[in-house]
Write a structure and sequence with these properties.
The protein has 2 domains: about 210 residues, NADH Oxidase (3-Layer(aba) Sandwich); about 150 residues, no CATH class. Helices cover about 40% and strands about 10% of the residues. It has 18 helices and 8 strands. A 4-stranded antiparallel β-sheet has the order 1-2-7-4, sandwiched between helices. A two-stranded parallel sheet has the order 3-8.
Length: about 375
């Protein structure tokens, strides 16, 4: 048979397997399921290198360490022939930015108000993978943000959406609220057309960023991003950025929330992840009281648990300092004696904003001489 002629039996099998996996995806609650090839993102290596060379990755050293595997799916797994990208809608019922008007509450990113999506999606993808492998007689691997996979470029090449100016994926049907997962397989599947960029001249997401973390459209500097700083960054937060945090204590949804495409989002299916009621508007006073065992218990099953109690309370203290609420002073005063330096440091900063100058000076006089940590001492002396 001439090479330019397609084998009808192969085409039929390809179509059958593609239809099968899409049906399985729908049964598992995925709103989107599209297919791309591992070679579909040839521009990714150069873009990733430019991002890393600019230092925009901050302290996320795993990015340069996995650069080669992240740039090309075939380096991660040489035998992969098709990549199936899945999207699950997690859009909120309300624009989460309304919480900025409630300084006594902590604002937790929408994605983290549910059970950890990594566990939810990976469990469902494994079920799909098991049935697909049996049907296709092919090898499979599934990933949910746990391997060096460039999910957003692959999702765009598969037609789930496009990478917006905020660098996140945007869907015409689900706006900026999609969890992504992938299934790599040795099977040959029908490939979908990529989505084109529909951002046009809009810059709503860029203008919405509280810390100006976008040096240009389609570029983000993690070192200024509240999501990075509250989740990935260890130690103290740059004093110049703290006031812009407001009451955002884990992540930030402002650029996602501002996307005009959100208004076209369809109603979620019945399998939509449900937010925990106690994580939608948690009281700062309660969160500031968490010791390590209580923190672990309260955030059991939540992605928040991964950052640990100390980093989380550090974030809550920044929110307390921004609140202007004197009711939070007792909790902050207690935490200047915490064993964790990052907690003590942010407790000092919060009190420097909540207490009258003379009262804070008296507090400094009593505590500064006994403080051994240089970073914490610097917090005491910054307000002199």
């Amino acid at each position: 048979m001439p090479p330019e002629q397609a084998d009808p039996s192969s085409e039929k099998k390809r179509a059958s397997l593609t239809a099968f996996i899409r049906k399985e995806a729908e049964a598992q609650g995925f709103e989107l399921c599209r297919v791309t090839r591992p070679e579909a993102i040839p521009e990714a290596p150069a873009r990733l290198s430019a991002y890393i060379e600019a230092g925009y990755h901050g302290t996320m050293e795993w990015m340069p360490e996995t650069r080669e595997r992240r740039s090309d799916p075939r380096v991660l797994w040489n035998d992969v022939r098709s990549i199936v990208m899945f999207g699950m809608n997690y859009g909120p019922d309300l624009d989460p930015r309304y919480l900025q008007g409630k300084p006594d509450k902590g604002a937790i990113s929408v994605y983290a108000r549910n059970r950890d999506y990594h566990d939810v999606m990976k469990g469902r993808l494994k079920e799909i993978a098991t049935r697909f492998a049996a049907r296709a007689g092919a090898d499979v691997k599934v990933f949910v943000d746990t391997a060096p996979v460039m999910e957003k470029p692959l999702a765009a090449s598969a037609g789930l959406g496009w990478q917006g100016k905020h660098t996140n994926l945007v869907s015409r049907d689900y706006g900026s609220w999609l969890f992504l997962g992938s299934l790599f397989t040795t099977a040959d599947l029908e490939v979908d057309a990529p989505e084109i960029d529909h951002c046009g001249s809009c810059r709503a997401c860029l203008d919405a960023c509280p810390t100006n973390a976008f040096p240009a459209p389609y570029k983000i500097d993690a070192r200024r991003c509240i999501s990075y700083l509250t989740i990935e960054h260890k130690g103290n937060i740059d004093p110049a950025l703290r006031a812009a945090f407001g009451n955002r204590i884990y992540g930030c949804d402002d650029c996602l929330s501002a996307c005009p495409w959100n208004k076209f989002a369809r109603e979620a299916r019945a399998m939509k992840l449900q937010a925990r009621a106690d994580l939608i508007e948690p009281d700062l006073s309660f969160l500031l009281s968490l010791d390590d065992p209580t923190f672990r218990s309260f955030f059991s099953g939540s992605p928040v648990k991964r950052i640990g109690r100390n980093r989380f309370v550090r974030n809550c203290l920044i929110a307390a300092g921004n609140s202007g609420l004197r009711d939070l002073i007792p909790a902050c005063r207690t935490l200047i004696g915490d064993t964790a330096p990052e907690v003590r440091g942010m407790a000092i900063w919060a009190l420097s904003r909540l207490l009258p100058e003379a009262e804070f000076a008296e507090l400094r006089e009593g505590h500064l001489p006994g403080e051994a940590e240089a970073e914490v001492r610097r917090e005491w002396t910054m307000s002199e």
